[in-house]
Design a protein that fits this description.
Layout lengths: L3 E2 L9 E3 L31 E17 L8 E11 L2 E4 L8 E2 L8 E21 L10 E8 L4 E5 L4 E12 L1 E9 L5 E7 L5 E7 L2 E7 L10 E6 L9 E8 L2 E6 L2 E6 L7 E9 L17 E9 L2 E2 H7 L4 E2 L18 E3 L5 E5 L7 E8 L5 E7 L6 E7 L2 E7 L6 E7 L6 E8 L2 E6 L7 E3 L10 E4 L20 E8 L2 E2 L2 H6 L4 E3 L1 E3 L17 E4 L4 E4 L18 H6 L6 E5 L10 E6 L3 E4 L7 E3 L8 E4 L7 H10 L2 E11 L13 E3 L5 E2 L13 H5 L18 E7 L9 E4 L8 E12 L6 E4 L5 E3 L8 E9 L3 E8 L6 E7 L2 E7 L5 E6 L10 E7 L3 E6 L5 E4 L14 E3 L8 E8 L2 E2 L12 E3 L17 E4 L4 E4 L14 E4 L4 E5 L7 H9 L4 H4 L6 E9 L5 E8 L4 E6 L4 E7 L2 E8 ...
């Protein structure tokens, strides 16, 4: 484990800083957990802290704190490293070169380097720090790593080391090769070896990039097995770069610094056969100073290991298996060239240096590298107000502009140099002549021969400072230059930046001295072959012609026609789909036949004629699908619920499956598997569809064509999805005289999505999936429904919780929380509607180096953009948790995808743990369902019943009733005034207008109630009106009658002929729609009655509803005769249309409810049904805990009592066989009295104890 602390044991002399706040904040106090910390002077414009580790170490991580007990801490910093204190390499991460710091003074922020590097010196540059409460820069730190042994070799372009393989050859199945290098050259050969059979292994540098060529092929077999891998960029920066090559068989991993490229070698061979030797650093043989296409390496190599062999150590020891051509003496040390580059980093950067005043000749020379299209390279003002000269980039080209008073501006441009490579610029000028040489191409310099006068000024600017004084300063319309410069010469004198700045001869701002921190688009952050354009501190992805869009060309199209249909696309036509969404497969165009077939055509739909084939030399027909590769079509079949493909073979003296023998013709499907069954039958039965349909022309054969008659056909649909699509067709019996075959393969037709696998969480539990490995971009999508207001949907983290991603719900807010390199961040979507409404919602989230965003349903994205050069690392070690138990999710989840890959939720179903298939909670499996049309509100772990729209109350909407004593009654006022004539007339003209004009529906009635009584007769329910209409239900001694008066006619119906005054609960339901009346008592068959067409079918202006007794002045005689003494008993669940009088009385939701009572009317549950004692969830049951405690106490006391009785019986103090008194069940006298009377007849019983 390479995690030793390296700073804590260092002496004070190992620490150096640009300045200090005072002696209490010196650099040597910058140790983790120390009692102080380092803080620079407030006047220090570029503070840094430097540590000399004493030797070279392999560094793995860094940890920081702020100054002890203060408000001083650094929130962001960059790190430089090197083998010497005057030449630095910036630590470059994916997306930038800044590291996240602390958020308080005491907590430790640990950053693990995403690739290990070696260094002896470390320099930390604070970039941002806390400024609240007087805070300033404050640092305590620790580095973690282990000692690193370095074996170095210097190469000058004419050197080479040859390692001779043991036994004069090398044949390996696996290889492990490591090499470190640094150079200023763009090209050079690092490793090379060949075999006589054409095997090859070459590692070379070309244009600052590293190329690995490997071939496992054999010339004898004429197989082209050469494979080329490319990694790295801008490797000519004189920094150490670390290369590792691992191969097993055809699998190769090629790593340069932090970038790893993986490939499968071409060909079919697995061993690398090399002869004699491997060249290190170059090829030097007789008559061949180097390879024809690659020069030898110039620079330093370190720790060259070939399958465990340390080549440089062997060369240093001059061992016999090492050969050095020409016997040249090698240098086992690296002689660095001191370049002192500088990085123009900030938005206001500039460098001002002195020049020689009033010279007639000007010489300026420097090297630069940049990605910028525009930027000022150099500006100087001439002496004596003769004008100025400007050298800059415009559209990537070098521009030279001369300004002189009274003369026309002279300007010309040449070369495009914003390619990120080092370029040299050599400018020489005198009166009337200026020459510009780029990259030392002296044969074709650019010249200006216009008349102008040169008198050099006293200062030169590389970049312009901000100032209002332009007399002595630079003035330009170009942007600031961003990039690197080195080797600056002014008037043929090389500038030593350190000396100039030390003596304050120059000025600068926002420069990083001693290093070049430029980065590029390697590895390409744009996905799906998007084109990357690099600027100084950011990149842009051009996604044209990729089929994708977004910041990094990540995703755009739906995965299937079914997904388009569900998103609202209902018309058939051509659509572009992407079955693996953000995966590596490209989108392709299909025909969607809504609802909702996905159809992919192929080149065999029109049919193909085959002759001359045999079972040993068959005709193999490849099926090519339109607009899609084989992998893409397979991916579509994978995500579909059902697929089918028509296959037809028309034969003329040509046999097909030849059951049970070897088939002549068959088809090849997914995974290149051969299948010996035909369309219309079951899989793997070697039969055709005519057997299933019993239509074969000869029942002795399993296919029509196998009968070998002159002409017939076998056809049908192949519908086993896991075998589709058809990839090839093999035809093998058309070589007989006159025989031929004609086959057709129809389009692949699929529908449905099996990604919609759905589960329900009914208990606080979780499920795990393999660790999510998203790379640089993560996208997550799923559907959910829940009633919980706080829950976590999913989370993935590493072992120490330094990195994690999490999606959680907080009522209206959906949050995407993550820590992937720059502290804990989140992007939160604030929904205008609550998301815990138990309705389906669709969530999408995405995270990349540019931004994080999240959306739900059709609401706009909530986006958090990251600053340029943000580094993210999504490396997790823990399993992916779905439904974290700290804040559990109870509800349904479906269609979970991680980077386009659907997760098998249904495969995790476990009823005992509370994970159910499909979206089934407690409502579907309720022990007792909600009664009386109550709506079940799903709680997944439990359920509740919504009784608001019913006439009932209670847990199951099973109760609200009233007990009426003799003479008591209840009146519910439906309307306070009659319907106006205008409303009645409008309703008469347009019956559909009634709900708006009347406020109720006068052609429909819905009445239900329950009752129990032993007294008859009585009026159970009466509804009056402002006219003469009424509705009455009358209980008689031998029946229950219904009276309906509509207009002038009273309709009389008998609901039942039984006597219902029997003390048992009975249920009555009456429904009328226009002229049809439907009645039902208890659970008997409903009775349907009709109102004739000549009668009125409207119940006009209902006024009041009476229970118990009718209290209106003018009622029909039949009603009056049964009205006294009134109803005595229980009545419950009374509802007329939307009116529930008992619920209004006992559960009022307004201050003045429209109900009044007389006499004794009390709430009761006796009317409708017996009390329902059903399942109550344990978390809602107040008795649950008490019952458990009581049972435990009973068991405890019972056990103690049993122990006591057993111990008492066994103590042996006195035992007797005398019978105990027993109560007689048939006599008041004890049974022992009878025994005493008969005692003389009993034998004498001896006592068991002995006296002392």
């Amino acid at each position: 484990e390479c995690v030793d602390p390296l700073v804590s044991g260092l002496y004070a002399s190992s620490f150096l800083a640009s300045s200090r706040y005072n002696f209490l904040y010196s650099a040597n106090f910058a140790k983790l957990y120390g009692s102080s910390g380092w803080s620079p002077s407030p006047r220090d414009r570029q503070p840094w802290l430097q540590i000399d580790l004493g030797r070279k170490y392999r560094l793995m991580a860094i940890a920081t704190q702020g100054t002890f007990n203060s408000y001083d801490w650094v929130t962001k910093y960059t790190l430089l490293y090197g083998d010497r204190p005057d030449s630095w390499t910036p630590y470059i991460m994916k997306g930038g070169n800044t590291l996240p710091g602390n958020w308080n003074y005491y907590q430790v922020k640990r950053n693990v380097f995403h690739y290990a590097f070696t260094a002896k010196h470390i320099r930390l540059l604070p970039l941002a720090w806390n400024t609240e409460n007087g805070g300033k820069i404050g640092v305590r730190l620790e580095l973690f790593g282990c000692p690193y042994d370095s074996y170095v070799l210097q190469y000058n372009g004419d050197d080479s080391v040859v390692y001779m393989y043991p036994e004069k050859r090398s044949r390996t199945l696996q290889d492990h090769i490591a090499i470190n290098f640094k150079t200023l050259e763009q090209d050079g050969l690092l490793l090379h070896s060949e075999g006589i059979q054409g095997d090859l292994f070459t590692l070379e540098l070309k244009k600052g990039r590293l190329y690995l060529h490997i071939s496992l092929s054999s010339i004898v077999h004429k197989v082209d097995g050469r494979t080329t891998l490319t990694a790295g960029s801008l490797l000519d920066n004189l920094h150490w770069h670390y290369v590792t090559i691992k191969r097993y068989g055809r699998q190769v991993n090629f790593t340069v610094d932090s970038q790893t490229v993986t490939a499968i070698c071409n060909g079919e061979f697995t061993h690398l056969d090399l002869d004699n030797k491997i060249y290190v650093g170059g090829v030097i043989e007789q008559n061949m100073p180097h390879l024809p296409s690659t020069p030898n390496f110039r620079g330093c190599l370190e720790n060259v290991f070939v399958n465990g062999i340390n080549v440089i150590d062997k060369a240093k020891r001059e061992e016999p298996d090492i050969r050095i051509p020409r016997k040249k003496k090698m240098h086992f040390a690296c002689r660095d060239i001191l370049l002192k580059p500088m990085t123009f980093a900030g938005p206001n950067n500039y460098l001002q240096v002195p020049g020689f005043f009033r010279r007639p000749r000007m010489f300026v020379k420097f090297k630069f590298r940049s990605w910028d299209y525009t930027g000022l390279l150099m500006f100087t003002r001439f002496a004596d107000d003769l004008g100025a000269l400007e050298l800059g980039l415009s559209e990537g080209q070098i521009n030279v502009t001369i300004f002189q008073p009274g003369k026309k501006k002279i300007q010309f441009a040449a070369y495009r140099l914003n390619d990120g490579y080092w370029h040299s610029v050599d400018l020489a000028a005198r009166d009337n002549l200026l020459t510009l040489t780029i990259d030392e191409e002296e044969g074709s310099p650019l010249k200006i021969t216009n008349p102008f006068t040169i008198r050099t000024g006293d200062r030169y600017f590389f970049g312009c400072p901000k100032t209002n004084n332009t007399v002595r300063k630079c003035e330009t319309k170009l942007n600031r230059f961003h990039g690197c410069m080195q080797h600056i010469f002014i008037d043929n004198e090389q500038l030593d930046i350190d000396i100039i700045l030390m003596r304050q001869w120059g000025r600068y701002a926002e420069l990083l001295l001693g290093t070049c921190g430029i980065t590029d688009c390697t590895p390409n952050p744009c996905e799906h072959e998007g084109r990357c354009i690099q600027s100084w501190d950011d990149f842009i992805c051009l996604c044209e012609n990729t089929g994708y869009k977004g910041e990094v060309c990540h995703m755009v199209y739906k995965e299937s026609c079914e997904a388009y249909r569900l998103s609202g696309k209902y018309w058939s036509g051509n659509y572009t789909i992407d079955p693996d969404l953000s995966g590596p497969l490209k989108p392709f165009e299909v025909y969607c036949k809504m609802k909702a077939w996905t159809v992919i055509m192929n080149d065999r739909v029109e049919g193909t004629k085959v002759t001359g084939s045999s079972i040993d030399r068959p005709y193999i027909a490849h099926v090519n699908y339109w607009n899609a590769s084989w992998d893409e079509v397979t991916a579509l079949a994978n995500i579909s619920m059902y697929c089918e493909q028509w296959i037809d073979y028309s034969c003329y003296k040509s046999r097909l499956l030849n059951t049970p023998g070897r088939p002549f013709t068959y088809w090849i499907g997914r995974n290149n598997e051969s299948h010996y069954y035909w369309g219309g039958t079951f899989r793997e039965v070697q039969k055709c569809g005519c057997v299933i349909n019993q239509t074969c022309i000869d029942p002795k054969y399993q296919c029509n064509c196998d009968a070998d008659y002159r002409q017939h056909s076998d056809k049908g649909y192949l519908d086993f999805r896991d075998h589709l699509p058809v990839r090839k067709l093999v035809v093998g019996d058309t070589n007989r005289t006159g025989s031929e075959g004609h086959f057709t393969v129809g389009p692949l037709r699929c529908h449905g999505d099996n990604i919609w696998n759905t589960i329900a969480f009914t208990k606080p539990t979780y499920i795990t999936f393999p660790t999510f490995k998203p790379g640089t971009t993560a996208d997550i999508s799923f559907h959910f429904k829940t009633y919980r207001d706080h829950c976590v949907f999913l989370e993935n983290s590493d072992e120490h919780l330094r990195n994690f991603i999490r999606i959680e719900l907080n009522t209206h807010n959906l949050a995407f929380v993550f820590m992937v390199g720059d502290g804990i961040l989140n992007v939160t979507l604030h929904s205008p509607m609550p998301l815990n409404d138990n309705e389906w919602h669709f969530v999408q989230a995405e995270l990349n180096v540019k931004l994080a965003r999240i959306k739900v349903d059709y609401q706009p994205w909530a986006v958090k953009r990251f600053p340029p050069q943000t580094f993210i690392t999504m490396k997790f070690t823990h399993p992916l948790l779905v439904n974290r138990t700290l804040r559990p999710f109870l509800g349904c989840l479906r269609g979970l995808r991680m980077n386009g890959v659907p997760l098998d939720l249904e495969g995790k179903v476990n009823e005992e743990q509370g994970i159910r298939r499909n979206c089934t909670g407690q409502c579907l499996n309720a022990t007792i369902p909600c009664r009386n049309s109550g709506q079940c509100i799903e709680g997944y772990a439990s359920y509740t019943c919504d009784c608001n729209n019913t006439a009932f109350d209670g847990f199951y909407c099973h109760k609200i009733g009233a007990y009426f004593e003799i003479g008591s009654w209840l009146r519910y006022n439906i309307r306070k005034k009659p319907v106006s004539d205008e409303a009645a007339w409008a309703n008469w003209i347009d019956p559909h207008y009634d709900n708006f004009s009347l406020g109720y529906n006068d052609t429909s009635d819905d009445i239900e109630f329950s009752f129990s009584t032993v007294h008859a007769p009585a009026v159970l329910l009466y509804i009056s009106s402002f006219v003469q209409d009424y509705i009455a239900v009358i209980l008689k001694t031998d029946s229950v009658d219904l009276r309906y008066k509509l207009g002038l006619i009273t309709h009389k119906y008998q609901l039942t002929h039984r006597n219902l005054a029997d003390g048992f609960p009975h249920y009555v339901n009456i429904t009328r729609h226009n002229r049809t009346i439907k009645t039902q008592v208890d659970y008997m068959e409903p009775i349907v009655e009709k109102i004739t067409l000549v009668e009125d079918a409207r119940f006009d202006s209902p006024k009041s509803m009476f229970l118990g007794r009718v209290m209106v002045g003018d009622i029909d005689y039949e009603i009056q005769r049964h009205n006294a003494p009134g109803f005595i008993g229980c009545i419950s669940g009374v509802r007329y249309n939307v009116y529930a009088p008992l619920k209004t009385l006992f559960r009022p939701n307004e201050t003045d409810p429209p109900v009044q009572t007389h006499g004794y009317v009390s709430e009761s549950i006796c009317g409708a049904f017996p009390p329902v004692l059903g399942y109550v969830p344990w978390e809602a049951d107040p008795w649950f805990t008490g019952i458990i405690i009581i049972l435990a106490l009973l068991l405890l006391f019972g056990g103690l009592y049993s122990i006591y009785v057993y111990a008492y019986q066994q103590k042996g103090s006195y035992h007797t066989n005398e019978p105990k008194n027993l109560e007689s069940p048939s006599s008041a006298r004890p049974l022992t009295e009878t025994l005493r009377r008969e005692k003389k007849n009993l034998p004498e019983i001896e006592e068991e104890f002995r006296s002392d």
